[in-house]
Amino acid sequence: MLKRASDNSPAAGREGYPDTSSSFGFGGPEGIDLREIFRIARRRGPMVAVIGFLTALLGAVYALQLTPVYTAKSTLLIDTNQKNIINAEAIVSGIGRDNSALESELELIRSYDVAKRVVRKLNLDDLSKAEPSKVSAVRQLISLVFSRERAPEPVLNENHTDKVIRSLSKSINIDRKGWTYVVDIKYTSSNPAKAAQVANAFADEYLVDQLEASYEVTRRANDWLSERLGDLRKKVRESERAVELFKVENNIVETNGSTLNDQQVAKLNEQLILARAESAQAQARYDQVQTVRKRGGDITAFADALQSSALASLKGKASEIRRELANLSAKYGDRHPSVVSARAQLQDVRRSISSEAKRILTSTENALRVASSREKSIAASLAEVRGTASKDGQAEVILRELEREAAANKALFESFLGRFKQTSEQEKLNTNNSRVIERASTPTSPSAPNKKSIVVLATMLGLGLGAGLAFLLEQLDAGYRTALQIEKQMGVPVLASIPRSDDELPGSGIGRAARKYNPFGLLSSLFRKADKSERRMRKSDRVNISRLVVQRPLSSFTEAIRALRMGIKFADVDRPQKIVLLASALPGEGKSTIASNLALLAATSGERVLIIDLDLRHPVLTSLYAPDAKQGAVELLLGEVDLKQAIVKDAASGLHILPAPRRKDLTHTAELLGSKRMKDLFAHLSGFYDLIVVDTSPLLPVTDGRALIDVVDSLVLVVKWETTARDAVDAALNQSLGAHAKLTGVVMNDVVASRARYYDYYKSGYYSKKYPYYYGGKA
């Protein structure tokens, strides 16, 4: 049969619903389909626009009934550097540089105490009592409509002023500008003057509160320091008195920061060191002299080492005499009186040298004895003094402890005394570390409500709501709107899309417009379950629609019927399908109308065509072609009449009709239609006709149509565009045995081209309106 090449497993698509998400442009294997999204926007756009307009209108009404409010702003600089003329960091420090300290200051601005100052300064307690509450009319109406009876709230025993203060504290808005120390104090009120007054009052009262707090801290610090100084002064006096008393009791005398014993020990140590050095030097000289004497050496040489001036002078004189003696001996000879005199002089000098050497030896021994004696004397004195000092050591330890305590008390007292003087001066020179940069002025334009923003926000909300509703409606749409949906679900092609035939009915344009734009008709179309009388088509219209291919052979409706005939004819070229069953899942799908026009089209084309009305419970074709017939298909199957007596011929088109007049005594219609006689009848008729069109009952409500599936060559299912539920079609095919195998294709009936073009432009038939000269219209 005629199938899409891409449909490799049609049966798989018939078992359940297809993946319809791709048909709405929101996914699928090929990704997002922008064209489909554009189509959804076009077909759902009016609804979204209406919702957006309504929400914008509601937003405008809401914005207009709001009471305008005004916001005043006072700018304050919180200086983190304390402006103290003196340095009192430990007691009166400025605001810290960390964020926590600054945030604490911001909370202080909106604190209860500052708000209390503002209320008292501006007398806001009386203003709040006199100011009536402003409730808009719309809010009152909403409260009346939606309000419920509530139990009266218990009255709290709370001061009215306290309520005003807490409310004011909550309503003030403090904003910090970035990471700076500049803050904005904002207050909003319906009275612009009041807004400016409150904002400025908060700034002023915060500065006053800060000054008073700083003064109070300084005063408390001074009081504490003054009390502490009294205690410290007393301790200093007591500790110093204890030191002096201890010195007197232990006979301790100090000069230049040390006791007399210590000074004596130090001096004796110095003297002992010098004495020991002198003694060692004298002993060294004595030892050298004795060593030279024992060895028989020249004592004068040692004397030179002793550096004796007299000895050095004698030795010098001896040297001169020897030199002179040598000269005289060389000149006059040994016996010359001058030589003899010189020799006598030399002997005298040598005796003097020897005497001096002996004297030096004797003085060396005396010096050694004196040095040793002095050393022993100094050592004895030092030992005596040290003995006395050891006895006074324990007393000095206690004395040092008392002195350290007295010094510590004195240092602490001096420190507190200096800090007391500083804080005393700070109390006089205390300055505030914050200031007002810009005072609030009376606002001239309201800060809220922003009516434009409200309307824009309401419009955006409405458009978003409309878009969400449009998406939801698209996802919940249970009907068929495109050929792709049918082909994916059932695996067969759409043979034709039949346009709605109201526009094709003959008559004046005014009459067609009246039928088309009847407001009651439009209202009834919004509800699926309309009254039966409203859904019934007039008999004249039904006759005209069933023969529309004859009356309007060049219309788009007739062209769609031609496409259906071509699809059936070429569905299986090797095995021509003569017996075609037109069925629908539910009543009112238009299968009888399509069957009639299909048969008429084939008959007017020169084919031998028979249309059989086997809708035994509601024979529409019989009422159209043979309303007065007394016998037909049922009688033929029961053998009551022959074929010639049962068939009716349409003289205008040459179409043969096998009617089915209603019989009240016929209760086993399904058994009759599925009998062997029915199968033999079709086999017999197929030898005489080129095409046999069979109209039957809907498949889902009754079983008559299901019984005919096995005896026909082809099944063509008619679904009504946008109306037939997919569940119903799926259930009808699943409950009809053999329907999937015989199903050649589907006909979408009653397609509204003006709306269907938003789903599938070229398959909707809307393009036919762009080329009217092809369909009998004017170019």
Q: How would you characterize the overall build of this protein?
A:
By secondary structure, the chain is an alpha/beta fold. Among the domains are: 34-65 and 451-473, no CATH class; 258-429; 478-505 and 540-773, Rossmann fold (3-Layer(aba) Sandwich). An eight-stranded mixed beta sheet has the order 7-14-13-8-12-9-11-10, with helices on both faces. Strands 2-3-1-6 form a four-stranded antiparallel beta sheet, covered by helices on one side. It has a two-stranded antiparallel ribbon with strand order 4-5. Helix 8 (192-249) crosses helix 12 and helix 9 runs antiparallel to helix 12. The longest helix is centred in the middle third of the chain and has 93 residues, at 337-429. The protein is elongated. 27% of the residues are buried.
- The CATH homologous superfamily of the domain at 478-505 and 540-773 is named P-loop containing nucleotide triphosphate hydrolases
Query: Class of the domain at 478-505 and 540-773, according to the CATH hierarchy?
Result: Alpha Beta
Largest sheet: 8 strands, mixed
Given the structure, what is the number of helices?
Answer: 31
Q: Indicate the proportion of strand residues.
A: 5-15%
Which regions are unreliable across 5 or more consecutive residues at pLDDT < 50?
1-24, 83-96, 132-138, 144-157, 508-536
The CATH architecture assignment of the domain at 478-505 and 540-773 turns out to be 3-Layer(aba) Sandwich
**Total strand count, please?**
14
List the strand order in the largest sheet: 7-14-13-8-12-9-11-10
Helix content: 55-70%
C-alpha-based Rg, rounded: 67 Å
Structural class: alpha/beta
The name of the CATH topology of the domain at 478-505 and 540-773 is Rossmann fold
What number is the mean pLDDT? 76
- The outline comes out as elongated
Distance between the termini: 38 Å
